[in-house]
Specification:
The protein has a 4-stranded parallel sheet with strand order 3-2-1-4, with helices on both faces. The protein is of the alpha/beta class and 102 residues long. Strand 2, helix 2 (54-62) and strand 3 form a beta-alpha-beta unit. The longest helix is centred in the last third of the chain and has 14 residues, at 86-99. The protein contains 3 helices and 4 strands; from the N terminus they run αββαββα.
Length: 102
């Protein structure tokens, strides 16, 4: 994957998993909202994702993740890379909490 670039936000999101402070959900039980793929995500078990930006969408699909429009079920692990637009980010925070399994 030579198209992977340095992504500070993605690296910060992956840090607790890289250091062993959090466990990655196995068996595709991860939902990643606003997903992007970078070096810090390589080798992790694929899950499902929501991404609205077509170039990022294509890279995440190439990495083996499954695209979701609006997942109905809840997940033990929900990741979110919020967009820069404040109102969209706020809505996604609510959506992420709503998709999190109890």
């Amino acid at each position: 994957m030579s198209t992977l670039i340095h992504d500070s936000a993605l690296e910060a999101l992956a840090y607790p998993f890289d250091t062993g402070r959090l466990e990655w959900a196995e068996g595709g039980q991860t939902l990643f909202l606003g997903a992007r793929i970078g070096p810090s995500m390589v080798g992790r078990a694929p899950g499902r994702f929501v991404q609205w930006f077509k170039p990022s969408f294509d890279l995440v699909v190439q990495a083996g993740w499954i695209a979701e429009q609006e997942p109905a079920e809840r997940f033990p692990l929900v990741l979110l890379l919020p967009p820069r637009q404040r109102e969209h980010a706020r809505a996604l925070y609510v959506h992420a909490v709503d998709r999190l399994a109890p």
